[in-house]
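Continuing the batch. This is chain 6 of the set; chains 1 through 5 are on the previous pages. Same settings as before, nothing changed between runs. Recording input and output for traceability.
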Amino acid sequence: MKSFSILSRVKIAFLIGLEILKRQRIYFLFSLVAIVLVVFVQLKFNFFYSDNIISIGLIGTYQEHDLPIELTKLISQPLVKSDENSRVKPNLVLSWDTNNDGTEFKFKLKPDLKWSDGSKVLSSDLEFTIPDVETSFPDNQTIQFKLKDAYSPFPSLLTKPIFKKGSLVGTGPYRITKIEKSRIFITKITLTPLDLSLPIIFVRFYPNEKVAQTGFALGEVGAFFGVSDTGFFVNNPKAILLQNVDYSKIVTVLYSMSDSFVGGKARSLRPWHRVRWRPVP
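Output for chain 6:
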């Protein structure tokens, strides 16, 4: 008798709720559409920022195998690093040894290193594609390189962040939790921190600076890296421009002397005309 009474109350409440929905269906449908629209706009443009979320824009078309260094530095670290005086020092390795003729190098990994997925870093987890260099792993902590020809500054070639073989799992403070693409090119990457005190980072990729400017105007990102045309941002009262010289890039001008304009009799550009470019800090 008691269970019958409870079922009756539930049924009556359900019928009353159904009747209210029928009478107020217009307002209910309007509210549902509004909620869906707000959620879509937030996910698309991220208008409502959180203190624990950062949105960054990068210009260029990238795939998983050629991500820019600004991103890879967040998700992993290199075996060695260069200091302010361009001297190579150990980073994820304790040290390295070389033979007398500079054709063989052995690097010893630091103990207790872990990938961002929680697994232990083993030397065999790594993969290197360096021309004329043979790589082997004598044990779980040792990486051995045999060079075809002597090259004493070989450690300087190992300053790029490392990743677990066949993946984008690194040793850095962030891990990739989501990748969005348009055909084969990446449009957005979500980086989640291993330390919860760090912010979540959304990285958006734009094919050119014109599209990037539109994305900035729409509020898709709060910061950009690698902008060459600063006019849009200089004239934007909401933007703060920070300029820094990138000494890792080289600008080269090549002349074809077989071209009629350059190498012809009436040439205005001559082979002894040299232009020396030097970045000014």
